[in-house]
Amino acid sequence: MGDPILSVENIKKSFNGVPILKGVDLCLNKGEIKILIGPSGAGKSTLLQCMNCLVPPDSGKFRLEERTVDITNKRELYVYRQQVGMIFQDFNLFDHLTALDNLTIALRKVKKMGKKEATARALAELSRVGLEEKTHLYPAQLSGGQKQRVAIARALTMDPKVLLLDEPTSALDPEVMGEVIDVIRNLAKRGMTMIMATHQINLIRTLADEILFMESGAVVEQGQPKVLLVPGTRSQGFCDKLDILTGKIK
Amino acid sequence: MIESFNAVKQSLPYLLQGGWITIVIVTGAMIMGFFMGLCMAVGQVYGPSVLKRVIGVYIWFFQGIPTLVLLFLFYFGLFNYIGFNINALAAVTVVLGMTTAAYQANIFKGAILLLPRGQFKAASTMGMSDFQAITGVILPQILRLSIPAWSNEFSIVLKDSALAFVLGVPEIMARAKFIASRTYQYLPLYIIAGLIYFVLTWAGVMGLAKLAKTVRIPGYANKGI
Ligand SMILES: Nc1ncnc2c1ncn2[C@@H]1O[C@H](COP(=O)(O)OP(=O)(O)OP(=O)(O)O)[C@@H](O)[C@H]1O
Ligand SMILES: [Mg+2]
Known about the structure:
The structure holds two protein chains of two kinds. By secondary structure, chain A is α/β, with parallel strands linked by helices. Chain A has one domain: P-loop containing nucleotide triphosphate hydrolases (Rossmann fold), CATH 3.40.50.300. Chain A is 38% helix and 26% strand. Chain A has helices at 44-51, 74-83, 99-109, 115-128, 144-156, 174-189, 201-207, 225-228, 234-245; strands spanning 4-15, 18-29, 33-37, 59-64, 67-69, 84-87, 162-166, 193-197, 210-215, 218-223. In chain A, a hairpin with a 2-residue loop joins β4 and β5 (67-69). In chain A, α3 (99-109) packs parallel to α5 (144-156) and α5 runs parallel beside α6 (174-189). Chain A starts with a strand and ends in a 5-residue tail after the last helix. By secondary structure, chain B is mainly α. Chain B has one domain (2-215): MetI-like (MetI-like fold), CATH 1.10.3720.10. Chain B is 81% helix and 0% strand. The longest helix of chain B is centred in the N-terminal third of the chain and has 45 residues, at 2-46. Chain B is flat and about 70 Å long. Adenosine-5'-triphosphate is lined by residues 15, 20, 38, 40-46 of chain A.
């Protein structure tokens, strides 16, 4: 089904001899949204960071739009990373730069844009996430929700074909979670291909085209929500627990 | 009393000229130490393990040996031995520069390790090369973080520069000693020499504190800057 944008095959990773990822295969089709769930320590963050080689995997094959990517070639890796954006749990905005310059720095250094062009592009992305008023503030002057929206806008300036999101709302207060969730929903509406680790039960239920349940470094269940979220599956059991945590079920 | 006053008054311009030589030594050494130290810090954090080890040995060497010994070792020993003919002023500057480079490398390395690793990761995810990430994201932040420790190092190097007198470089200390031995006004002359060092230190430290304030990142104050 669909046309695959990003596929990874047999990703393995050990830390100090302990296998953390035990050969994960994954294929994202255009416009598809996959959601990664699973207990803490399952390897979700490690998998997402292996997918753009922030954590270099011990083995694994990468294909972006039918082209095999040689991740050992630095030049090829840099180009690959431009096309695979990433959003972190703790934002990782560049602390010494204003919101605007957080966006322009890569446009100028990586895309070699001129100052004017880069600024125009950055302003467009910032206003798309509702932050046109905050462009000249530094990260330390922004709320968590605003920081994460800047981070998303920053990732989008590279025109990524895929977005990897690692618990984008976990570090946020409940009051500001909504503004980030709205931005993510908007991205989904615009057809962005995404893979997201999240424990946000609403996102899982409403956004996922497919749910991947990870445990001990492997995907142990995967399927559409309506197939997977039925009594008796591991995923449903996990989501029930999330529901209890968020107070939906007593 | 009058005699002391006259001796000091007459020798003051001569002593102050020595101040300029001190300034040249310290500025040269600090600039040299800055670039070498920065390169070594980056090499120690991001470089291949062979490079890390080589830099480690360098730092260990210059931190482990007294500056006075290093001065003799290089000026009368190594520089002579390899036929590297430089005057005493240049030799002092280079040796102090190489020594402070070791300390500055530790300052910068500490600051790099203090930065959250996510800063580098975020730069990488945008497709920046390691070089772009280091120069565009890491260095601008760690240089700000390093100003207080760097200022401290500056005041140490300034004081170490008095050692230049043993090689006959006519800086403040050498001049004070020279005049004192002729006029026998030891106390007032050494007080003046001390005061000149004090004023130079104070000016440098104040200037750096002002720099730290100018480049401060808004809203970032409670994070150690
Ligand atoms: N750099 C590292 N060095 C050693 N072990 C690591 C490293 N990074 C991750 N691990 C280990 O790998 C395992 C998986 O970690 P990972 O962060 O991928 O889990 P996760 O599924 O994202 O969990 P969480 O839901 O808590 O975020 C954990 O046991 C962790 O201790
Ligand atoms: Mg995680």
